[in-house]
Amino acid sequence: MSLATLLLLADGRLPSGGHAHSGGLEPQIAAGRVRDIRELDGFLRGRLATGGLVSAAFAAAACGDVGRAAELDAGLDARTPSPALRKASRAQGRALLRAGRAMWRLASLPSREPHQPVALGALASAAGLTPVEAAVAAAHGTITGSASAAVRLLGLDPYAVHALLARLAPECDRIAALAAERHGDPVDDLPAAGAPLLDIGAEHHATWEVRLFAS
Amino acid sequence: MRASATVVAEADGRGGTRLAVLRGESPLLLRRTGPRGAGGTTVHLVGGAAGPLRGDDLRLDIEVGPGAVLEMLSVAASLALPGRPGPPSRLTVTATVAAGGTLRWLPEPLIAAAGCDHIAVTRVDVADGGTLLWRDDLVCGRHDEPSGAVRADTTIRYAGATLYRHELAVGPGAPGWDGAAVLGGGRAVGTLVAAGSGLPEPGVAGPNAAVMPLAGPGVLATAVGADIREVRAALDPLCRRPAIAS
Predict the structure, then answer these.
(1) What are phi and psi of B34, to 5 degrees?
(2) Which residue ranges does UniProt annotate as crossing the membrane (chain B) (predicted)?
(3) Which residue of B has its CA nearest to A81?
(4) I need a surface site. Which of A210, B19, B65, B126 has the fewest CB within 10 A?
(5) HSE toward the beta carbon, residue B108, CA cutoff 13 A
(6) What CATH number should be reported for the domain holding residue A46?
(7) Chain A window 158-187: which residues touch B at a Cβ cutoff of 8 Å?
(8) pTM of the full structure
(9) Are B236 and B205 in contact (CB under 8 A)?
(10) Which residue from A123, A173, A178 is spatially nearest to A6, judged by alpha carbons?
């Protein structure tokens, strides 16, 4: 394992298009559900415990055995009822693979456009990282992307937002550990925590004519 | 309390559906209701005792054979209650639907009373050519009380592949469940999974609802509301019985 490699993989500056996505925050802001740091905290905790846990488990599983990529990808399809979110996840998976191919020697995957956690796990594996490290990168990515979107959409104090991320770091570690523990489970048994408002919001968001973020 | 109930519906050979097995025990009592006719058979779930209470382990198995049409309803909302200290209460519902069979599962909501600790496990397997409508509504707490803990764990398979896999946790022990990603202060949530034929049209079904085509052959409608009325307003129109199927 290499800590510097893990930092590279989790870095928001990785050119994988992540900055174009708010992780479902933009529609919830428009609906008036997230207006301040306290409500951002509630949003991020819910996102971490649902999509964060699922992403972390699937990234860990793909890292542990890239040969499972196809069944893991189907498992994420079954956990992502919103077509807008499936599209966003696959777009981010494709962009991540593109960056990853330039950085490491990736195993070949059955799809050019896998779900983002499967791509992340494949990159982690190629980089010599472990499933728990893949899980940490995935869980971390689910909250940091939304947090930086919050600064742009709500004009929140960036120091206050990073203070919130620091408070959430132990929860991020806990979720990643939970996810990684289960990485060898059959796909149907992997975490499937859903977030109804993220699904509903993504479908509404996809109908907007003007939006700042792709999802 | 441990209890189990079983329903087996099969085509009667004359265009109708008969119940080869209809067996229950308190608190899972089953009653055949409605007319016997070509429109299928209706069975009501009748709560025969309070609860589910902590420690209860309940199981309902449903089997719909080729050509049979079964509608499952309940006479009242079920109320998950705290009971004595003990393991969580658990209700496991399994269903299989054969090719050409139809199952409509449209029970009243589950209410998570303050202090409850309940697990609802759903496993549905529909053969290629079967039809499913599967509704689950959840209300987080009775009027003006905090929600109890409920974990719903649902797997719906169609034609041998997992179509829909979903878990939802609310109440104490579910981080961020009332935050803007999950229920956002909403106290009621409903889901409707349709698979097979006669799927609802995708789209946004109100400000806090959506009808979404799944990656596989099915549709999910989800609604979140301040109360159950808002959820019903979004989902009930999608559950109307089609004109008698020929």
Answers:
(1) 75, 170
(2) none
(3) B214
(4) A210
(5) 12
(6) 1.10.4190.10
(7) 171, 187
(8) 0.96
(9) no
(10) A123
Q: Decide if A44 touches B, using CB distance below 8 A.
A: yes
Helix (H) or strand (E) holding B4: strand B2-11
Closest CA to B174 of B140, B208, B145, B144: B140
Tokens of B157: 């398979």
Work out how many domains chain A is built from and give that number. 1
Residue with the two structure tokens 């209860």: B56
Structure tokens at A112: 């050019």
- Are the C-beta atoms of B152 and B167 separated by less than 8 Å? yes
Question: Does residue A212 lie in a domain region?
Answer: no
pLDDT of the residue at B38: 64
Tokens of A107: 């195993």
Q: Is some CB atom of chain B closer than 8 A to the CB atom of A189?
A: no
Looking at the domain assignment, is residue A69 inside a domain? yes
pLDDT 10s digits, B160-203: 999 999 999 999 999 999 999 999 999 999 999 999 988 988 88
The distance of A25 to chain B (nearest Cα, Å) reads: 8
Measure the N-to-C terminal CA separation of chain B; round to a whole number of Å. Answer: 42
Is A129 inside any structural domain?
yes
Range of the domain at A106: 3-7+24-203
Residue of A nearest to B169 (CA): A193
B208 lies within 8 A of chain A by CB: yes
